């Protein structure tokens, strides 16, 4: 609708009815307000009339008491005289006094005559309480009161003429008050006390005729005001039309004539009110920004390297940028109004669904065009109502990129030398192939003597040997079974659905096939062997990582058995389980060191000769789990040695043992703690300074500490061990060789090592009481040590018979269950030897 017509409709349909409604509403409000005030006044008036009526009753009762009081004490002659006197003074006031006597109701001054009916008289005679009731008699309305004073009962009757009742009203609103019988339909009635079944009320009439004439009535003045308001509205419409409607119409006409595709920007011109001019300025600014953005979009589309095509809602081409023209091989005019589906080969169903707004907002598809792979991104073009009016197609030639990706993918998944799957690809394919099979066997193959080829012939010949090995392995496998290179000279084979016997036969065939592979280089022939570890599993299959771990451990066991060996992993093999759990134990040890969860135990070392005053005990290491269980030392010690954690473990034990000893200075003169040092700790940089630092920190004498080192550790790290032992020995520490006799050339190294004690290995002590050879070996060790001035300690002493044989030989000390079992060091009760003496 035109804006001028909207203003007319606004005036006629809204403004004029609004004025009339306001006029009618004000009148209605005034009328209701007057009615509410009137009802409020009437209610107050009725309450006042009732209060005045009650006051008249109270006055009449008071008058009755005034008379009845003196009457009760007078003789009969005086009562008659008093009756006459009262009657003369009150009869003119409309009051009639009666008293009850033996003859009945007697009126003052009138003898025995009474205008009241016997029923009324009888009803008022009963009882002794004060009574006040209204009565309609033949002579008019009466107010009767009866009281009892002593032996006398007095009845007072007063006439209630209508004039007197009307005077009970205090405002000018009351027109008439009457005492009447109660009836339905009475508007203003006040109930009063009465006799019998007849109910009496005070019927009040109000003069309200003038009040109802107060409602607003239309007159000429009001009509004139209304017409004046309508005239002002018409003048306002004319003013608005000239200052707003006409200029706005011209501005709208200019906006309607704007051509969106014009190459020039034409600003709008407008006159009229300030608002229209402001609207014109804002519109011109907006149009300028739209034109600038249009130019920016054109420059961007023509400057980018990707091909861009715009279509309408039907899929016909509207615009192509220069890269799109070059890609399609033509000019923009050659493809104008043609369907993009026919040009690029896009499925019409797919394009129609996208243009109709079905599916995602943006869509990517791959296209083949003129032998090239194109990546097409479809983006919707929507209007202000979010309806799709076309599409934007961004085309990019990804042929070279996809070729590069394929090559990188191949290099990432395959071994560059053999063309086999690498470890990552092998694990991924292994997980996929193993699913659905009842049994699988993962074989871990480690080539032997391969390093000789690399060192002697070079890595190129080594790679050629790897290719020969891969072909030999592949020739032995059935279709569907997986072969991969998982390391430098390590291969993995996944066998599906074979029994353990079949797997063993296949691997032997594979070893034989490998022995036939000969590499000739400069007149020399080179061959390689292979150690194979097998992890055999049945459904439900463990994880790939667990299978690889088991196969790797089995391969290590195969190498330990010799050359070209095969070993199947057995979860009941304790040694293999130790190796399998070694990483877990290593982590547990590291955590225990960090959280100070290591616990020290002690085992006493008993002197078999009475001449030595010192009490000796060996410090043992334990780790307690959260449930209180003590971990087996063999497991975590082996793991710590494998993962090079023993130096940290030894440092923690040395620090804890010295701190404990520092707390008992009374034991320094007659106690000695034996602390084990592993082979990994001997000669480690910083170990010697750490031990000396702990000694100074705790301020304990070095004679209280004896370090035990295993014979094999000392031999393996001979020079470093000698340097460290000599340096610490100068500090005052004592040393002992542990497990003596289990290694080779023991006596030769014993001559070189600066030790004070030799602990004879327990394998010679356990059967000492019954085995003559063990007896001779132990005796020979003791004899040699005695000549060299070294004291001997026998380990694993488990019976008194062994103790007796050791004393017979002359061994200095004994250690074992027969002497004492290991106990927590915190529970040790320090008792100096001098107190025991």
TrEMBL record:
Domain spans labelled PAS: 293-329
Record keyword Ubl conjugation present: no
Protein name: EAL domain-containing protein
Pfam families from the UniProt entry: EAL, GGDEF, PAS
Membrane-spanning segments: 7-30
Domain GGDEF per the UniProt entry, residue ranges: 438-571
InterPro entries: Biofilm_reg_signaling, EAL_dom, EAL_sf, GGDEF_dom, Nucleotide_cyclase, PAS, PAS-like_dom_sf, PAS_fold
Residues covered by the EAL domain: 582-836
UniProt keyword terms in alphabetical order: Membrane, Transmembrane, Transmembrane helix
């Amino acid at each position: 609708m035109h804006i001028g017509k909207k203003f007319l409709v606004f005036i006629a349909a809204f403004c004029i009815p609004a004025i009339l409604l306001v006029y009618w509403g004000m009148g209605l409000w005034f009328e209701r307000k007057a009615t509410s005030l009137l009802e409020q006044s009437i209610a107050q008036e009725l309450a006042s009339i009732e209060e005045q009526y009650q006051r008249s009753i109270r006055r009449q009762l008071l008058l009755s008491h005034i008379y009845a009081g003196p009457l009760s004490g007078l003789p009969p002659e005086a009562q008659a005289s008093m009756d006459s006197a009262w009657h003369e003074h009150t009869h003119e006031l409309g009051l009639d006094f009666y008293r009850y006597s033996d003859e009945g109701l007697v009126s003052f001054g009138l003898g025995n005559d009474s205008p009241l009916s016997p029923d009324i008289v009888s009803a008022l005679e009963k009882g002794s309480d004060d009574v006040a009731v209204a009565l309609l008699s033949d002579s008019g309305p009466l107010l009767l009161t009866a009281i009892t004073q002593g032996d006398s009962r007095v009845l007072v009757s007063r006439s209630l003429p209508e004039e007197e009742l009307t005077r009970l009203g205090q405002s000018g609103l009351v027109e008439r008050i009457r005492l009447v019988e109660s009836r339905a339909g009475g508007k203003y009635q006040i109930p009063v006390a009465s006799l019998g079944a007849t109910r009496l009320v005070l019927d009040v009439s109000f003069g309200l005729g003038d009040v109802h004439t107060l409602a607003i009535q239309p007159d000429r003045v009001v009509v004139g005001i209304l017409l004046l308001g309508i005239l002002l509205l018409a003048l306002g419409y004319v003013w608005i039309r000239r200052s707003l409607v006409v200029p706005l119409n011209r501005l709208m006409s200019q906006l309607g004539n704007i051509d969106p595709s014009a190459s020039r920007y034409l600003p709008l011109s407008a006159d009229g009110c300030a608002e229209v001019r402001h609207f014109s300025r804002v519109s011109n600014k907006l149009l300028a920004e739209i034109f600038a953005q249009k130019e920016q979009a054109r420059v961007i589309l023509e400057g980018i390297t990707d091909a861009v095509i715009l279509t309408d809602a039907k899929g016909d081409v509207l615009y192509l940028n220069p890269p799109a023209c070059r890609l399609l091989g033509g000019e923009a005019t050659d493809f104008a109004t043609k369907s993009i589906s026919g040009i690029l080969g896009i499925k019409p169903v797919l394009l129609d669904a996208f243009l109709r707004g079905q599916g995602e907002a943006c869509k990517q598809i791959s296209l083949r065009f003129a032998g090239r792979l194109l990546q097409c991104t479809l983006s919707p073009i929507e209007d202000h109502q979010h309806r799709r009016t076309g599409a934007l197609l961004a085309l990019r030639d990804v042929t070279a990129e996809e070729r590069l990706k394929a090559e990188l993918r191949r290099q990432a998944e395959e071994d560059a030398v053999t063309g086999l799957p690498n470890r990552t690809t092998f694990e991924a394919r292994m997980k996929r192939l193993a699913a659905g099979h009842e049994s699988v066997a993962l074989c871990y193959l480690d080539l032997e003597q391969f390093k000789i080829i690399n060192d002697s012939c070079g890595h190129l010949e080594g790679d050629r040997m790897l290719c020969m090995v891969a072909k030999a392995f592949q020739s032995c496998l059935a279709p569907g079974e997986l072969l991969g290179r998982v390391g430098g000279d390590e291969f993995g084979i996944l066998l599906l659905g074979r029994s353990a016997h079949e797997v063993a036969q296949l691997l032997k065939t594979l070893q034989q096939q490998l022995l036939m592979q000969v590499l000739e280089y400069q007149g020399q022939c080179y061959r390689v062997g292979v150690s194979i570890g097998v992890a055999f599993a049945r459904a439900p299959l463990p994880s790939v990582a667990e299978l690889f771990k088991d196969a790797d451990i089995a391969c290590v066991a195969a190498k330990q058995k010799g050359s070209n060996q095969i070993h199947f992993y057995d979860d009941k093999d304790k040694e293999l389980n130790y190796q399998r759990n070694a990483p877990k134990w290593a982590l547990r040890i590291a955590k225990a060191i960090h959280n100070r969860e290591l616990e020290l135990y002690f085992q006493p070392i008993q002197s078999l000769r009475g001449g030595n005053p010192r009490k000796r005990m060996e410090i043992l290491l334990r780790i307690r789990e959260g449930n209180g269980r003590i971990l087996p030392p063999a497991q975590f010690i082996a793991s710590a040695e494998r993962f090079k954690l023993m130096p940290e473990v030894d440092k923690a034990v040395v620090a804890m043992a010295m701190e404990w000893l520092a707390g008992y200075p009374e034991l320094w003169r007659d106690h000695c703690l034996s602390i084990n040092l592993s082979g990994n700790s001997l000669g480690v940089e910083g170990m010697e300074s750490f031990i000396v630092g702990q000694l100074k920190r705790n301020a304990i004498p070095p004679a209280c500490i004896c370090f035990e080192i295993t014979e094999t550790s000392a031999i393996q790290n001979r020079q470093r061990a000698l340097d460290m032992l000599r340096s610490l020995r100068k500090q005052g520490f004592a040393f002992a060789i542990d497990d003596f006799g289990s290694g080779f050339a023991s006596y030769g190294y014993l001559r070189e090592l600066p030790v004070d004690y030799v602990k004879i290995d327990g394998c010679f002590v356990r059967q000492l009481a019954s085995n003559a050879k063990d007896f001779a070996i132990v005796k020979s060790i003791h004899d040699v040590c005695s000549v060299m001035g070294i004291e001997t300690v026998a380990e694993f002493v488990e019976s008194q018979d062994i103790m007796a044989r050791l004393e017979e030989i002359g061994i200095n000390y004994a250690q074992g269950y027969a002497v004492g079992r290991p106990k927590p060091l915190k529970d040790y009760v320090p008792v100096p030897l001098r107190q025991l003496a």
